[in-house]
Amino acid sequence: IFSSGLMQSGEDDEGLGGFLPDEILKEVRRSSRLKCTYCGQHGASVGCAVKKCKMVFHYPCGIKNRILFQYFDRFRSFCSQHRDPPIANSPPADAVCSACVSPFDLKEAHSVLSMPCCKNWLHRTCIQAQANSAGAHFFRCPFCNNKDNFQKEMLKLGIYIPDRDASWETESHAFRDLYEREMLCNAKTCQCTGGRRFNLEDSAKWAILLCNCCGAKGTHKACSRGSSKENWTCQECVSIVGSKIAQPYLR
Protein backbone atom coordinates (compact mmCIF):
# COMPACT_ATOMS: atom_id res chain seq x y z
CA ILE A 1 0.00 0.00 0.00
CA PHE A 2 3.02 2.32 0.28
CA SER A 3 4.27 1.53 -3.24
CA SER A 4 4.59 4.79 -5.13
CA GLY A 5 3.33 3.43 -8.46
CA LEU A 6 0.42 1.31 -7.24
CA MET A 7 -3.14 2.57 -6.99
CA GLN A 8 -6.21 0.87 -5.53
CA SER A 9 -8.28 0.74 -8.71
CA GLY A 10 -10.70 -2.03 -7.79
CA GLU A 11 -13.33 -2.50 -5.13
CA ASP A 12 -12.38 -3.83 -1.71
CA ASP A 13 -13.48 -7.34 -2.67
CA GLU A 14 -11.50 -7.35 -5.93
CA GLY A 15 -7.94 -8.58 -6.29
CA LEU A 16 -5.87 -8.07 -3.14
CA GLY A 17 -7.98 -5.64 -1.11
CA GLY A 18 -8.77 -3.60 -4.22
CA PHE A 19 -5.29 -3.86 -5.77
CA LEU A 20 -5.71 -5.65 -9.10
CA PRO A 21 -3.28 -8.43 -10.14
CA ASP A 22 -2.21 -6.77 -13.40
CA GLU A 23 -1.38 -3.53 -11.63
CA ILE A 24 0.54 -5.36 -8.90
CA LEU A 25 2.68 -7.11 -11.54
CA LYS A 26 3.24 -3.80 -13.30
CA GLU A 27 4.47 -2.26 -10.04
CA VAL A 28 6.76 -5.25 -9.43
CA ARG A 29 8.36 -4.69 -12.85
CA ARG A 30 8.75 -0.97 -12.19
CA SER A 31 10.35 -1.41 -8.77
CA SER A 32 12.66 -4.18 -10.03
CA ARG A 33 14.64 -1.45 -11.81
CA LEU A 34 14.99 0.72 -8.70
CA LYS A 35 17.75 0.34 -6.11
CA CYS A 36 17.09 0.96 -2.44
CA THR A 37 18.86 4.03 -1.08
CA TYR A 38 19.75 2.12 2.09
CA CYS A 39 20.56 -1.49 1.19
CA GLY A 40 21.41 -1.05 -2.50
CA GLN A 41 19.20 -3.95 -3.60
CA HIS A 42 16.61 -3.78 -6.38
CA GLY A 43 12.87 -3.83 -5.75
CA ALA A 44 12.58 -0.51 -3.93
CA SER A 45 8.92 0.32 -4.52
CA VAL A 46 8.48 3.07 -1.92
CA GLY A 47 9.48 6.66 -2.60
CA CYS A 48 9.43 9.91 -0.66
CA ALA A 49 6.15 11.82 -1.10
CA VAL A 50 8.04 15.05 -1.83
CA LYS A 51 8.07 15.15 -5.65
CA LYS A 52 11.56 16.62 -6.00
CA CYS A 53 13.05 13.96 -3.70
CA LYS A 54 14.62 10.98 -5.49
CA MET A 55 15.00 8.66 -2.49
CA VAL A 56 13.48 5.18 -2.92
CA PHE A 57 13.59 2.29 -0.47
CA HIS A 58 12.06 -0.98 0.65
CA TYR A 59 9.43 -0.75 3.37
CA PRO A 60 11.55 -2.77 5.90
CA CYS A 61 14.56 -0.56 5.13
CA GLY A 62 12.38 2.49 5.70
CA ILE A 63 11.33 1.19 9.12
CA LYS A 64 14.96 0.60 10.12
CA ASN A 65 15.97 4.08 8.97
CA ARG A 66 13.07 5.94 10.59
CA ILE A 67 11.14 6.82 7.47
CA LEU A 68 7.83 8.50 8.33
CA PHE A 69 4.97 6.31 7.09
CA GLN A 70 1.46 7.74 7.32
CA TYR A 71 -1.05 4.91 7.79
CA PHE A 72 -4.12 6.68 6.43
CA ASP A 73 -5.57 8.39 3.35
CA ARG A 74 -2.94 8.13 0.57
CA PHE A 75 -0.42 6.24 2.74
CA ARG A 76 2.40 8.67 2.05
CA SER A 77 6.04 8.19 3.04
CA PHE A 78 8.61 10.84 3.92
CA CYS A 79 12.36 10.28 3.91
CA SER A 80 14.64 11.35 6.75
CA GLN A 81 15.22 14.74 5.10
CA HIS A 82 11.53 15.59 4.80
CA ARG A 83 9.85 13.75 7.65
CA ASP A 84 10.21 16.16 10.57
CA PRO A 85 8.26 19.44 10.65
CA PRO A 86 9.92 22.33 12.50
CA ILE A 87 9.43 22.02 16.25
CA ALA A 88 8.14 25.27 17.71
CA ASN A 89 8.69 24.10 21.28
CA SER A 90 10.78 21.32 22.72
CA PRO A 91 10.68 19.60 26.10
CA PRO A 92 12.92 20.97 28.85
CA ALA A 93 16.44 19.59 28.90
CA ASP A 94 15.77 17.67 32.13
CA ALA A 95 12.35 16.33 31.04
CA VAL A 96 11.69 12.59 30.96
CA CYS A 97 9.11 10.50 29.13
CA SER A 98 6.13 9.83 31.39
CA ALA A 99 5.72 6.33 29.96
CA CYS A 100 9.24 4.89 30.32
CA VAL A 101 10.73 7.57 32.63
CA SER A 102 13.75 7.90 30.33
CA PRO A 103 15.23 11.22 29.14
CA PHE A 104 14.61 12.55 25.64
CA ASP A 105 17.30 12.73 22.99
CA LEU A 106 16.61 16.24 21.73
CA LYS A 107 19.02 15.73 18.83
CA GLU A 108 16.62 13.11 17.43
CA ALA A 109 13.47 15.12 16.71
CA HIS A 110 11.86 12.07 15.11
CA SER A 111 11.97 10.15 18.40
CA VAL A 112 10.03 12.74 20.43
CA LEU A 113 6.35 13.55 19.95
CA SER A 114 4.36 16.42 21.37
CA MET A 115 0.77 15.67 22.36
CA PRO A 116 -1.36 18.00 20.20
CA CYS A 117 -4.13 18.32 22.77
CA CYS A 118 -2.19 19.14 25.92
CA LYS A 119 1.42 19.83 24.80
CA ASN A 120 3.00 17.06 26.86
CA TRP A 121 5.83 14.92 25.49
CA LEU A 122 6.44 11.19 24.96
CA HIS A 123 8.83 8.98 23.04
CA ARG A 124 7.56 7.87 19.64
CA THR A 125 8.21 4.24 20.56
CA CYS A 126 6.17 4.60 23.77
CA ILE A 127 3.22 6.09 21.88
CA GLN A 128 3.41 3.35 19.25
CA ALA A 129 3.41 0.67 21.95
CA GLN A 130 0.30 2.25 23.47
CA ALA A 131 -1.43 2.33 20.06
CA ASN A 132 -0.59 -1.33 19.44
CA SER A 133 -2.13 -2.28 22.78
CA ALA A 134 -5.16 0.03 22.82
CA GLY A 135 -6.26 -0.18 19.18
CA ALA A 136 -8.42 2.46 17.50
CA HIS A 137 -11.27 2.03 19.99
CA PHE A 138 -9.26 2.91 23.12
CA PHE A 139 -6.22 4.87 21.86
CA ARG A 140 -6.33 8.24 23.63
CA CYS A 141 -3.96 10.87 24.95
CA PRO A 142 -2.52 9.40 28.16
CA PHE A 143 -2.51 12.85 29.75
CA CYS A 144 -5.86 14.50 28.94
CA ASN A 145 -7.84 11.54 27.51
CA ASN A 146 -8.54 13.34 24.21
CA LYS A 147 -9.33 10.90 21.40
CA ASP A 148 -10.39 12.46 18.07
CA ASN A 149 -7.82 15.24 17.71
CA PHE A 150 -5.13 13.08 19.31
CA GLN A 151 -5.61 10.16 16.91
CA LYS A 152 -5.77 12.46 13.88
CA GLU A 153 -2.45 14.09 14.73
CA MET A 154 -0.76 10.82 15.67
CA LEU A 155 -1.62 9.40 12.24
CA LYS A 156 0.00 12.42 10.59
CA LEU A 157 3.11 11.85 12.69
CA GLY A 158 3.41 8.25 11.49
CA ILE A 159 1.85 6.32 14.37
CA TYR A 160 0.12 3.16 13.21
CA ILE A 161 -3.24 2.66 14.97
CA PRO A 162 -4.65 -0.87 14.50
CA ASP A 163 -8.34 -0.83 13.61
CA ARG A 164 -9.38 -3.29 16.30
CA ASP A 165 -10.43 -3.56 19.90
CA ALA A 166 -7.91 -3.23 22.71
CA SER A 167 -5.67 -6.21 23.40
CA TRP A 168 -6.99 -6.49 26.95
CA GLU A 169 -10.55 -6.75 25.61
CA THR A 170 -9.74 -9.66 23.29
CA GLU A 171 -7.65 -11.68 25.74
CA SER A 172 -9.30 -14.98 26.60
CA HIS A 173 -10.95 -14.95 30.06
CA ALA A 174 -9.48 -11.49 30.74
CA PHE A 175 -12.37 -10.50 33.01
CA ARG A 176 -13.23 -13.90 34.43
CA ASP A 177 -12.41 -12.81 37.99
CA LEU A 178 -15.00 -10.04 37.79
CA TYR A 179 -17.75 -12.61 37.36
CA GLU A 180 -16.72 -14.54 40.46
CA ARG A 181 -18.30 -13.52 43.75
CA GLU A 182 -16.58 -14.56 46.96
CA MET A 183 -18.90 -16.14 49.53
CA LEU A 184 -17.42 -15.15 52.88
CA CYS A 185 -18.80 -14.30 56.31
CA ASN A 186 -17.53 -10.82 57.19
CA ALA A 187 -19.17 -10.64 60.61
CA LYS A 188 -16.89 -9.30 63.33
CA THR A 189 -17.33 -12.59 65.17
CA CYS A 190 -18.17 -15.59 62.99
CA GLN A 191 -20.02 -18.25 64.99
CA CYS A 192 -19.74 -20.99 62.38
CA THR A 193 -17.48 -23.89 63.40
CA GLY A 194 -16.84 -24.60 59.73
CA GLY A 195 -15.17 -21.23 59.26
CA ARG A 196 -16.02 -18.04 57.45
CA ARG A 197 -16.13 -19.71 54.02
CA PHE A 198 -18.54 -22.44 55.06
CA ASN A 199 -21.81 -22.00 53.16
CA LEU A 200 -24.72 -24.39 53.56
CA GLU A 201 -27.38 -23.25 51.14
CA ASP A 202 -31.01 -23.34 52.33
CA SER A 203 -29.78 -23.58 55.92
CA ALA A 204 -31.59 -21.40 58.44
CA LYS A 205 -28.30 -20.66 60.21
CA TRP A 206 -25.27 -21.33 58.01
CA ALA A 207 -26.30 -20.07 54.60
CA ILE A 208 -24.29 -16.99 53.62
CA LEU A 209 -26.25 -13.87 52.76
CA LEU A 210 -24.64 -11.23 50.57
CA CYS A 211 -25.23 -7.53 51.15
CA ASN A 212 -28.29 -6.45 49.18
CA CYS A 213 -26.62 -3.10 48.40
CA CYS A 214 -23.01 -3.79 47.42
CA GLY A 215 -23.02 -7.57 47.04
CA ALA A 216 -19.40 -7.64 48.24
CA LYS A 217 -19.75 -8.37 51.96
CA GLY A 218 -21.48 -11.44 53.37
CA THR A 219 -22.58 -13.03 56.62
CA HIS A 220 -23.96 -16.30 57.91
CA LYS A 221 -27.58 -15.90 58.91
CA ALA A 222 -26.67 -16.89 62.46
CA CYS A 223 -23.84 -14.35 62.60
CA SER A 224 -26.05 -11.32 61.99
CA ARG A 225 -28.89 -9.85 63.94
CA GLY A 226 -32.26 -11.08 62.80
CA SER A 227 -31.14 -14.42 61.40
CA SER A 228 -34.58 -15.12 59.98
CA LYS A 229 -34.23 -12.28 57.49
CA GLU A 230 -33.40 -13.10 53.88
CA ASN A 231 -32.22 -9.58 53.06
CA TRP A 232 -29.13 -8.22 54.77
CA THR A 233 -27.02 -5.07 54.43
CA CYS A 234 -23.42 -4.71 55.57
CA GLN A 235 -22.31 -2.07 58.07
CA GLU A 236 -20.54 0.01 55.41
CA CYS A 237 -23.69 0.30 53.31
CA VAL A 238 -25.81 1.04 56.39
CA SER A 239 -23.61 4.07 57.06
CA ILE A 240 -24.33 5.30 53.53
CA VAL A 241 -27.97 4.45 52.86
CA GLY A 242 -29.21 4.62 56.47
CA SER A 243 -30.42 2.06 58.97
CA LYS A 244 -34.10 2.49 58.02
CA ILE A 245 -33.39 1.04 54.61
CA ALA A 246 -30.83 -1.56 55.64
CA GLN A 247 -31.51 -3.89 58.56
CA PRO A 248 -30.17 -6.05 60.07
CA TYR A 249 -26.45 -5.26 59.92
CA LEU A 250 -23.17 -6.70 61.15
CA ARG A 251 -22.44 -6.88 64.83
UniProtKB/TrEMBL annotation:
Keywords: Metal-binding, Zinc, Zinc-finger. The keyword Signal does not apply. The keyword Lipoprotein does not apply. GO terms for molecular function: zinc ion binding. Residues 1-83 form the PHD-type domain. Signal peptide: none annotated. One of its GO terms (cellular component) is nucleus. Pfam families: PHD_G2E3 (PF26054), zf-HC5HC2H (PF13771). PROSITE patterns: EPHD, ZF_PHD_1. PANTHER family: G2_M PHASE-SPECIFIC E3 UBIQUITIN-PROTEIN LIGASE, PHD FINGER PROTEIN. This is PHD-type domain-containing protein. It comes from Capitella teleta.
